[in-house]
Amino acid sequence: MMPKPKLIVISAPSGCGKTTIAKEILNRHPDMLFSVSATTRPKRGTETHGSDYYFLTKDDFTEKIRKNQLIEWEEIYGNYYGSLKSEVERALGSGRCMLFDIDVKGALAIKRQYPDDSVLIFIRPPDLETLTSRLTNRKTEDESALKKRLDRVPMELEKGNEFDYSVINDRLADAIERVNDIINREISGE
């Protein structure tokens, strides 16, 4: 039986491991496309335009909003993030699954626009203490940015209740296995 093309959306609060899980899922499913999001935030370290993100100016991004070229978009921490319609059309048009690594509001916007084609998987932290520790230890934000991320967590956890699946990332290897099992079931149509 031919696998059904699906839009697989992984979302979580910062520090829950969603990007690490998404990268492993792509390793296990080399036929799956990755949705490269657009953003106005500056490039970090070794990030590449068109691979990690489409890095746009605020003017370019707002032009895409005006022309209705984004499925979803949001301003987070002073920068815009969004998913390009052209990315989704590329996946569904080629009959391939596409993986998204995006925020909760963006995930729910995709579900609203593609209710029969999308699968939303929310990654939860084991508890808030563990999440705070993970964010602090990764040392990618100053104290102010860290506080902004933590202030957003209650809203994200609440929105996560609207997802199709919820996976607690208590041990990364176990969380990856659970997410992979969900995806295998979904694309096989079982």
Could you outline the blueprint of secondary structure elements for this entry?
Elements: E1 7-11, H1 18-28, E2 33-34, E3 38-39, E4 54-55, H2 58-66, E5 70-76, E6 79-84, H3 85-94, E7 98-101, H4 104-113, E8 118-124, H5 128-138, H6 143-160, E9 165-168, H7 172-188
Rg (CA only): 16 Å
Per the principal axes of the C-alpha atoms, what is the gross shape? globular
Beta-strand percentage range: 15-25%
CATH superfamily: P-loop containing nucleotide triphosphate hydrolases
**CATH architecture, please?**
3-Layer(aba) Sandwich
- The domain tally reads 1
| CATH T-level fold name | Rossmann fold
State the total count of DSSP E strands. 9
Main-sheet strand order equals: 2-7-1-8-9
Level-1 CATH class name: Alpha Beta
Judged by helices, strands and strand pairing, the structural class is alpha/beta
